[in-house]
Amino acid sequence: MKHQIDPKIDCVFKALLGAEDNRNLLVHFLNAVIGSDLITPLTTVDILNPYNDKEYLEDKLSIVDVKARDNDGNIYQIEVQLVNFANLSERIVYNWADIYSQQLQQGEGYHQLMPTYSIWLLAENLIKEDLDYIHVFKMRDNKGRVLNNHCGIWLLELQKFSAPQVENEQQRWIRFFKEGEQLNDETGLPEWMTTNEMRQAMSTLKQFSEKDRDYHAYQARQNYLREQLSRDYQYEEALKRERAALELVKEKDAELERLKELLAKSNLH
Question: DSSP string covering 127-158, please?
Fold first, then answer.
């Protein structure tokens, strides 16, 4: 490969799982990640927002997730997040709720709602409390009873994954997204990458590496994301400084109030 390609960059990610030519990869990915929660394995899906390379070449891409629907009407959404930011957990829940609610058109009833499942690939850790790299959230009460089967949110924290050997297809995909930028088919792929699906995924990376047009699109998206991340970082740092300044003002106000109280007491004596 001429260039290293990160499968987490949005144009590559969407080409991998959102292109019509890679529909079988999307089905394989969904079965690998959430197959244990499905009644039967998926055999096909319709991609609701298929990858279009012209969107990237013209830098007009606004929808970077992958949405699909199976034959039963269940909806799937997959998104990759490179950097965590304030209120990311709220955004994840809001995105799920927005997709779920958009199913109903005017005059339609709640009985027409179908299960909606969201999968988030996180390059940075969101949940600090444990070392689990997969978290599954559903609507349950305090006794573990599920309200209904319409909600499922999967968080895959790539940074936490450190299994020495790939033991199943779920781990294979997680490792691919975590280490994909280091792979090079010319120097030899590791054993865990020798399945048909991984070879096909690798061919998509190679397309972005070898074809000048696709590599320029990849570079443009990478630079755009870097600029966005820099702006987000500066915004977060500004918020931190603002919060620190407000805390300092509160502390000074509290100290001033204490001094006033002491003066008032001394005047009484």
Answer: --S---SEEEE--B-TT--BS-SSEEEEEEEG
